[in-house]
Write a structure and sequence with these properties.
about 190 residues, mainly alpha, 2 domains, two-stranded antiparallel ribbon, 2 strands, about 5% strand
Amino acid sequence: MSLKSLADKCPCGSSPCEVLHDKVSLLWGKFQDMVDELQAEMDRNEAKYEALRVDLTTQMEIIKVAKGRYMMLLAEVISNLNADQSEQAEKEQQKQELDAQYYTFMSACRKEIERIICDDIVAWYCIRNAVMAHSVATNKGEKMIQDCEVTYWLPGDCSVGCDDSCPTIFKPNDDPYSCGGWQTLTVALSQT
């Protein structure tokens, strides 16, 4: 039923339907204002959302570019780390080979020192003691044989300043004296 048909059925001249119509109109205006306010709020929220979406999309693009750059840097660091580990393994192998050469050479040096002490120095002491046992001068105490006192070994100048042509690793058949120079050590008798 329409409002007009309701108004026609009202018994009095000024019908309560008109009052009702006014109240409904006020309520409709109030609800229309609320709808307008909600629409304005929705428009504001949509604008905020759109700005936030654009901002987040821009940030994601920046982060994606930064991630790509950092992935490249990470790959470079991993590559450098692998190269360093490989070089460390080579250096460790070189150290083991040098240590083996050093111990072999030092063993030969110790054997040569023992040979010199046993064959040369002790032999001279034996000869001297034998001579002293048959010497008339030492038996009478007139003259005692005294061993010479000597100074420490003094290093001289090296025959070359620095020889960079020497290899860093000598192979077993290489001659270690093929490069570098010589340094003379001297010892003097001390005056007592």
